[in-house]
Amino acid sequence: MELHIAVAPETLWRLELPGTGIAFNITNSFITMLLVMGFLVVAGRLIARSATLVPGRFQSVLEIVVEFVLNLVESTAGRRFGRRIFPLIGGLFIFIIVSNYSGLLPGVGTVGVWHEEAVKSAKLAAAAGASGESAAQVHRVLVPLFRSPSADLNMTLAMALLSYVTFQFLGFRAHGVWGRLKHMANPPFLFPIEVISEFSRIVSLAFRLFGNIFAGEALLTVMYGIANAVKVSVIGLLIPVVFLYLEVLFGFIQALVFALLTLIYITLAAAEGHEEHGERHGHERAGAA
Prior knowledge:
Strand content: 5-15%
Helix content: over 70%
Largest sheet: 2 strands, antiparallel
Low-confidence stretches: 273-289
Mean pLDDT: 79
Oligomer: single chain
Number of domains: 2
């Protein structure tokens, strides 16, 4: 069995709008993203309907997760402002961690359709140069039907852009356009560096999540190949299991890091303005009293 690892998501279908020349590629990571979103919507509705004052085991686990994220947000951004941005931070964390774990489910990356593609090699190129024939050789590769959304750079880049637009909008809203620019140009000669630093956050958020999840899936693929080559059943079973547990840990860490960085960026951009507004509003109430 030949290992097939592709950085770009594989296209399953290509939809073209008649008469417009516009086409959309439906990739395996996009299909998995839709399934993850559908699962979260259905699970959220079921949990909301079955919620009770005395929680059961499943509800208790969910409340622990929500309380954990809420405490992180409030301890960083403050209680008032933290509760306002909690839906975004909590939504990012839950979506990313479910997306990360979707790549570990049975069948993801292993169930697909066989596709023939041309592969070039040095030997074939040398032979083709002597005989004048084509240097391509046809190989059958498995195109998986499902792929983790976090292993697609398009998806991580979209979430990074969402995070970037959010904390920039909240920053300008809290300080005003001039106040935000003045804060970035303090002292003035650091303004170009601040601008580069702001845009580098998009790259940092997108490539950190994509790189870690894609590398983890590639490592698991290699470990499955080694386990398949080893004919001793115990060793073939233990090799993938160890790395599966590591990927469970790394998936949680990467979801937490993305959510925390977004929280920190929002807090640095907007929380000071909200604190000043809250203090000024409190002084006005005290003076009126």
